[in-house]
Write a structure and sequence with these properties.
The complex is a heterodimer of chains A (112) and B (115). With 112 residues, chain A is an all-beta fold. Chain A is 0% helix and 56% strand. In chain A, the strands form two sheets. In chain A, strands 2, 4, 5, 9, 10 and 11 form a six-stranded mixed β-sheet that branches. In chain A, strands 1-3-8-7-6 form a five-stranded antiparallel β-sheet, with no helix packed on it. In chain A, a hairpin with a 2-residue loop joins strand 6 and strand 7. Chain B is globular, with a radius of gyration of 13 Å. With 115 residues, chain B is mostly beta strands. Chain B has strands spanning 4-7, 10-13, 18-25, 31-37, 44-50, 53-57, 64-70, 73-79, 87-94, 105-106, 110-114. Classes of the chains: A mainly beta (112), B mainly beta (115). Chains A and B meet through strand 4, strand 5 and strand 9 of A and strand 5, strand 9 and strand 10 of B.
Chain lengths: 112, 115
């Protein structure tokens, strides 16, 4: 069974810092990997989808990488802002493309 | 437009009530999903519908009954729930399922409280 782990569970940084969130998965059969943002009490906002054939994806200040051989993905946030404060979740998509397995999330606080 | 809508936003129900959660998308997606999220935990998959057919039921108790009336709508019928069923219920959709880059889009959720 796929297990997804995110480290750290919580992170507090001053505004302007570049930061890296980590995601690891146990089963290399993961097909794609998706990163989400969740604000308290809200739904999930999709940030980036990395296909198995890709190694990274970029959107604005966000860059996500995927290394299937090592079972790891990272989300890089450049020049963090207070508005980036949220919980960030990674989720692996299985080969059938119908199941997301989520990590426990990283709660990010960016202080002004 | 990548919007998934859910109604109601909040729902309080007693253990003997019957209620329904609704989800709608107009992106032409053929796969729709129900997830349950407890406080400070990640979402857990409950059901997957593909082309209006139930394809995955993650051993969900029968007090939760999904329904997909058409390709744009997904309902979750609730009956005789327990207090531990209180959670945020999230609906999602994707263009399709299968080996492809099918991003899932989530709705804002329904906050359910069972008293």
């Amino acid at each position: 069974k796929q297990e997804v782990t995110q480290i750290p569970a919580a992170l507090s940084v001053p505004e302007g810092e570049n930061l890296v969130l980590n995601c690891s998965f146990t089963d290399s059969a993961i097909y794609n990997l998706q990163w989400f943002r969740q604000d308290p009490g809200k739904g999930l906002t999709s940030l980036l989808l990395i296909q198995s054939s890709q190694r990274e994806q970029t959107s604005g200040r966000l860059n996500a990488s995927l290394d299937k051989s090592s079972g790891r993905s990272t989300l890089y946030i450049a020049a963090s802002q207070p508005g980036d404060s949220a919980t960030y979740l990674c989720a692996g998509i299985n080969n059938a493309g119908n199941m997301l397995t989520f990590g426990g999330g990283t709660r990010l606080m960016v202080k002004p | 437009d990548t919007e998934v809508t859910q109604t109601p936003k909040h729902l309080v129900m007693g253990m003997t009530n019957k209620k329904s959660l609704k989800c709608e998308q107009h992106m032409g997606h053929r796969a729709m999903y129900w997830y349950k999220q407890k406080a400070k935990k990640p979402p857990e998959l409950m059901f997957v519908y593909s082309y209006e057919k139930l394809s995955i039921n993650e051993s969900v108790p029968s007090r939760f009954s999904p329904e997909c009336p058409n390709s744009s709508l997904l309902n979750l019928h609730l009956h005789a729930l327990q207090p531990e069923d209180s959670a945020l219920y999230l609906c999602a959709s994707s263009q399709d399922v299968g080996s492809g880059a099918y991003e899932q889009y989530f709705g804002p959720g329904t906050r359910l409280t069972v008293t």
